Amino acid sequence: MDTIQQALAERVAEEHRHHGKALFLLFFWVWGALLAMTAIEVYLTYQNLQPVKMLTILLGLSFVKAALIIGYFMHLKYEVSRMKWLTMCSVVACLVLMTIFFFPDAFRILYLGVK
Hints:
mainly alpha
């Protein structure tokens, strides 16, 4: 490990020692928020909403859930900014590739219908 990573690791370890209970409560609240968003998603799937409206809400909740999971449970919140930028650029690249490959088929289903 280089000195920057070691200094960050020592700082995080020190924070864990001093704020152990506070971090536990923070992770508990994040877990509760993820659980609540999952319950909302399940509830929405059983409602008779328009597909575009329902999918917009579900995708929005999924992005928020992904951000919480990446930030807190994968500990990206404590990483250096280079790692955050690298991760976010990779996510954007994956989303662009998914858009390029999946949307033509999605539009075909919209126009031709499902049989």
